[in-house]
Write a structure and sequence with these properties.
- By secondary structure, this protein is mostly helical.
- It has one domain.
- Helix 2 packs antiparallel against helix 3.
- The protein is flat, with a radius of gyration of 17 Å.
- Keywords: Membrane, Transmembrane, Transmembrane helix.
């Protein structure tokens, strides 16, 4: 029996939830720095750096590496999925930057 809160002892889940929460919280400050105003919609909204999806994927991969060690297939899968997520974010950021430059 894992107790009343089995997810609280699941290291990858806790790491993912913590990374997601921290990234969403930091969006509030990065938006305030860029726009010079507080935008509380960023606490629950998507977009803007830091990427909560990338932070979540990287946290899961690191937590699995710490818990299961780096020799297993679970760590390999988590690392590949986190890398694909980071690459997807980089491609989208590059596309947005270039399209903004072209339309100015």
């Amino acid at each position: 029996m894992a107790g009343p809160f089995p997810l609280s002892t699941n290291l990858p889940f806790v790491a993912a939830a913590l990374a997601f929460s921290i990234a969403q919280f930091l969006k509030l400050f990065t938006t305030q720095y860029k726009e010079k105003r507080w935008n509380y919609k960023r606490l629950v909204g998507s977009g803007v750096m830091p990427s909560s999806q990338s932070a979540t994927g990287a946290a899961v991969a690191v937590a699995i590496g710490l818990q299961e060690r780096t020799g297993g297939s679970l760590f390999a899968l988590a690392t590949i999925l986190a890398s694909v997520n980071l690459e997807r974010f980089n491609m989208i950021s590059h596309w947005i930057t270039n399209s903004t430059i072209c339309w100015k």
